[in-house]
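Table S2 (text version). Query chain:
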Amino acid sequence: MLSPNEVLQKYWGFKSLRPAQQKAVNYVLQGQDVITLMPTGGGKSVCFQVPSLMKNGICIVISPLISLMQDQVNSLKEKNIRAISISGPTSYRELTRKLDNCLYGGYKFLYLSPERLQQNLVQEYIQEMNVNLIAIDEAHCISEWGHDFRPAYREIKILKELQPEVPFIALTATATPKVLQDIQENLALENAKLVKMSFARENIALQVKKTEDKNYELQKFLTKNPGVSIIYVRSRKLTLNLKEFLLHHNISAEAYHGGMNTEQKDKLLKNWQEESFKVMVATNAFGMGIDKANVKNVIHYQIPDSLENYYQEVGRAGRNGQESNALLVYENSDLLRLKDQFLKNAPTPESTKFIYKKLNSYFSIAYGEGIEQSYNFSFLDFCHTYKLNTYLTYNVLQFLDQLEVLKLSKEFHQRTELFFKIPNRELHAFLDQQPYFKNLIHTLLRNQGGYFNYKSVVNLKQLESKSGIPRSSINAQLKKLEDLEIITLTLADQDSTIEFLVPREDDFTINPLIPYIKKYYKNKKYKIDKIISFVENDTTCKLIQLLAYFGENQQEKCGKCSVCLAEKNKFDFFNQNYTPIQKAIVDCLKEEKELNSREITFRLDYSEEEILYVIREMLDQKQLIKTKRNTYILK
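Corresponding structure-token output:
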């Protein structure tokens, strides 16, 4: 058997595990449950991947995001490690094929969502598998106090019953002491060994800048700190606007947001990783599972809604250990906007009841009915019909999804399903009489079987490509086949679907949830207050503030955050020797002849406060002349 470091060297090319990784791996090899807290970029995945590769059997990994699962599976496959994920719409035949492969095919890693784990068939297969380890990734999702609470995570402990002798390892990058307690209790890991790395990332300078012109600060910062960068914003429109602004100022940038299709996202990610352009302006749809080591700057153009999200996104910088920057720019209105967007639009008992009733009315669901029924759902049409606030409505629906009142799927437009109502022999006779449908049906049947046995998912993109038929014509032909009673069709042409998990009982449905709704609001307010306090506090080292939130008592200042640098560079207006700054301004104006104060500040590596003071002194001493255009020239 290879040692842990030999496995690491063989597959990852590194000579030795970090101390915390080594500790976690050793506990797993001893058969003990482990909870691992490591900052983003700390190498959490290795803690379960290395010991699993050392043992016979398969490791089951529970992960919350399809993209995260697929990234890890692809990464393992590139190392010639057999890994598979079961995610997204999957037919019964495809599901059993994948599970059979895990049972008999020598796979080392099976990635599942917590919702998929609840299927009886999946549980039956897991019970028969030779499982060597169970890994719970993003384990903070199990806590109501976490920033990504997923109720389905509470059901993961069923694996303790299915595989009682197998050790668990729960992994997270953002657990406060309260969240850690929830992980221990809800996964029944009270006796687990805790492996915790400091949340301090010594190579990242935490900069917070208050400004009246965020675009200017952005341009100045990226010009002075060139390199691979991510800029986080909260809207699709802003990704596009900032991209255009940066391109206009000769900074190579692209925009990335959730409205793009998979092909567009994959192409953008590939080009960014290959550094065809340097700056990705993105919503938080970008970053999870992306492991690019040389990100120089992570910039928040808007204030995140929690310190957990801030920390996770900041942690995508400097994974190569090189000096890197995390800049947050804000103006006073951003603080009010943060409260408006995330507190005024947080679910309350009243708003939850109101929107739930309107949702039932929208689908004409009678009292006591609706359970296990699915509906195509146009979110914007629903909001327009009842003149609802879109932010609040979305948050309420997400909350009802979390509390398992309903299931909201945002990818339903990708899931068209059909089933042939007539046998194969009769279908051929039908096509002889109706040759118009031959191309579509023959292409459909060549791509995938099973349509005569059960309702199966249709890959519309593939069907369009291989048949040469436009998507609109495909939809029209499928609807016509349904009218002719050749097929049973679910043509998902809306932007989402809703499945009701409980019968409609209005207040009786929502009233038991009121304690959770109040707790959710209280928790959201706490997180908003903490991030605002972090942003506004300009007297305590930013690293000390951040670590205190995560339960670490750090005494030593980092020396590189915006607070520490302001203290270090504090300008003594009366005793300071400002000759070097004066000389730099003179050299600047000799070269450019005429500049305004912003242009001078942009070109020099001194603080704006210092430069403006020196400019005033030079004006008093008649060394500079201020023009009518508010620019400066040498006398």
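Notes on Table S2: The chain has a mean pLDDT of 87. The radius of gyration is 29 Å.
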